[in-house]
Write a structure and sequence with these properties.
Layout (H helix, E strand, L loop, with lengths): L3 E11 L2 E12 L3 E5 L6 H8 L7 E6 L8 H5 L2 E4 L13 H10 L10 H13 L15 H13 L5 E5 L7 H18 L2 E6 L11 E6 L1 E6 L1 H4 L2 H8 L4 E5 L2 E5 L10
Parallel strand pairs: 3-7, 3-8, 5-6, 6-7
Antiparallel strand pairs: 1-2, 1-4, 8-9, 10-11
Length: 264
């Protein structure tokens, strides 16, 4: 299996403006890659394009040897996708085990009845994120951090080669952020799973990520933390009121809460 993600001249348009504008990059996995940028910069659009949920207006994507515009079904068998948590319906009183099993049952024909093997895989996925004891708990009653780890377990049940996570650290406490990042880094390091994580705030991730992509509709910079997190690059994404603080080999970005500026 190919271990590269190749994107050339990727452009996505919505109603006349470009959500992504000629984005180009190449990534070799396993690796921990963070995509950062202000709100509205096209980060979610990029993730959805990679797995075939959005069809580009122009450009080329090859991800692990597959073209997502033509082979999305095959691709989703080897990629785990964790969408933003606020987009998950929690009014239905699902138990944790049911949420995790959805990751494998959605690929089966009706009636979707879990086998003993499926249940074993679900328990193993929860164990990988350290919450196997929540098996019979109601999902909606969990903390935000626990819910996020359940959703990661759901993505892991199919034994993916690549894990895409959209804002997994939003609206959860610092301890939960640390636990999730430790888990993701271990999956990358010990199990060879590629990690692509979208965030508007790079700072919690700086000690874990191998590469950073700075995005604001266009790809502003891609590389190591030190090379990407410069005040010049950050101004292109966030505007003039930015600052970079360096501590040893680690860089932190002070960007404020801003939105991408779209032009037609």
């Amino acid at each position: 299996m190919d271990n590269k993600i190749l994107v050339k001249d990727l452009t996505v348009e919505y109603d006349g403006y470009k959500a992504l504008d000629e984005v180009n990059f190449e990534i070799t996995i396993p690796k921990f890659v963070t995509i950062m940028g202000p709100n509205g910069a096209g980060k979610t659009t990029l993730l959805k394009s990679l797995i075939g949920l959005i069809k580009p207006s122009n450009g080329y994507i090859n991800i692990l040897g597959y073209d997502p515009t033509k082979e999305a079904f095959k691709l989703r068998k080897i990629i785990g996708y964790v969408p933003q948590r606020e987009r998950i319906e929690i009014s239905v009183p699902f138990k944790v085990k049911s949420v995790v099993l959805m990751g494998i049952l959605c690929r089966k024909k009706i009636p979707r009845i879990p086998t003993s093997k499926d249940i074993k895989l679900a328990r193993e996925a929860l164990a990988k994120v350290g919450i196997e004891d929540l098996w019979d708990k109601q999902f909606s009653r969990l903390s935000g951090g626990q819910q996020q780890r359940v959703l990661i377990a759901r993505a892991l049940i199919s034994n993916p080669k690549l894990l895409l996570l959209d804002e997994p650290l939003t609206a959860i406490d610092v301890t939960s952020q640390w636990e999730i990042l430790e888990t993701l880094k271990r999956l990358e390091r010990d199990e060879g799973i590629g990690i692509i994580l979208v965030t508007h705030d790079i700072n919690p991730v700086v000690e874990y990520t191998d590469e950073v992509m700075l995005l604001n509709r266009k790809l502003i910079a891609h590389g190591t933390l030190k090379n990407v997190l410069t005040e010049e690059n950050l101004r292109k994404a966030y505007g003039p009121n930015v600052k970079v603080v360096t501590s040893g080999r680690i860089c932190y970005a002070i960007t404020g809460d801003v939105h991408a500026r779209h032009t037609r």
